[in-house]
Specification:
Elements: E1 12-16, H1 21-31, E2 37-41, H2 53-69, E3 74-77, H3 80-85, H4 87-98, E4 103-106, H5 108-116, E5 134-140, H6 142-147, H7 149-157, E6 161-167, H8 171-176, H9 181-198, E7 206-209, H10 218-223, E8 230-232, H11 234-248, E9 261-265, H12 269-276, E10 286-288
Parallel strand pairs: 1-2, 1-3, 2-9, 3-4, 5-6, 5-7, 7-8, 9-10
């Protein structure tokens, strides 16, 4: 049975474990200025990157269910850890049973498409093609690295691409705590050095900042990567992907009237606002979820 279009009209939900998804939201607002958004940061349980898979799944389901209850017919999981660990299971097991007419998208799919130049629905390499080999470095949380989602999905579509992963377990806690850039710089430089060591000191052809927090310190990665290394911009790619999805699915209509932004946190709003103010607009104020 087709869902009436009016019931699919509502704000778009954006979910992350903390501040990182704000980098995605900023790109979404710029790309889709006529849309309303509700942002949820699960600061009370951040960071997700150190949690086990079942815990990440449970927290992700709870967050998405909360956004659905705020009237969001469509939610973007702007957290690589949740997208890599929980999203496929959630879409297969939970969503069809509990919210069959609503949709949940993640940031991992558009990144894999951008890296491989292959649409997500194509899971085998094109016959007869032998592209030149290249190396992609993935900087991500420990849970994302352990899931092997990036190398698995890239490998299906583009086996000529060598994927080297580097876990960055201390980076999200530092960013969430509002650490000074001078404290974050040596940590980032150390992770880049560790990835290069996996390559025998060579540079990758490109790198993915595979956590939505990492664009907040993208320049620190760039300080120790060669100028020729492409740093793939996740926020812009995610925004373009969502715009394309909405074009293909007009049933997710924008509500009539203004396009407000709402910000919620599972943590302490005062603490979250004090920490996030370096990264967001002055009127992006968090309230309790």
């Amino acid at each position: 049975m087709t869902q009436p279009a009016a019931l699919l009209s509502g704000p778009i939900g954006v979910f992350d474990s903390g501040h990182g998804g704000l980098t995605i939201l900023r790109a979404l607002v710029d790309r889709l200025p006529g849309r309303s958004f509700v942002y949820l940061g699960d600061h009370a349980h951040a960071p997700y990157g150190r949690r086990d898979a079942d815990d990440i799944y449970r927290l992700t389901v709870e967050a998405i269910d909360w956004l659905f209850r705020q009237g969001c017919p469509l939610v973007v999981v702007a957290c690589n850890t949740a997208a890599a660990v929980a999203l496929r299971r959630l879409q297969h097991d939970w969503l069809p049973v509990h919210h069959p007419h609503r949709r949940v998208l993640g940031v991992l799919v558009p990144m894999v498409e951008a890296i491989t130049d292959v649409p997500w629905h194509v899971e085998t390499p094109a016959p007869g093609l032998s592209p030149a080999p290249r190396t992609v470095g993935i900087f991500a949380t420990a849970a994302t690295v352990a899931s092997r989602a990036y190398p698995a999905e890239i490998g299906k579509r583009a086996p000529h691409i060598r994927v080297v992963q580097q876990a960055c377990p201390d980076l999200v806690p530092l960013i969430e705590a509002g650490a000074a850039r001078e404290a974050i710089r040596p940590v980032v430089h150390g992770y880049v050095a560790a990835l290069k060591a996996q390559l025998g000191g060579a540079e990758p052809d490109s790198v993915v900042l595979g956590c939505t927090h990492y664009p907040l310190v993208a320049d620190l990665f760039g300080e120790v990567l060669a100028p020729a290394v492409r740093i793939i911009s996740q926020p812009v790619i995610a925004a373009d992907s969502l715009a394309g999805y909405l074009d293909r699915h007009p049933e997710f209509a924008a509500p009539a009237g203004p396009a407000p932004l709402r910000f919620h946190t599972s943590g302490d709003p005062a603490a979250v606002n004090a920490s996030a103010e370096r990264f967001v607009a002055a009127d992006w104020i968090f309230r309790s979820a």
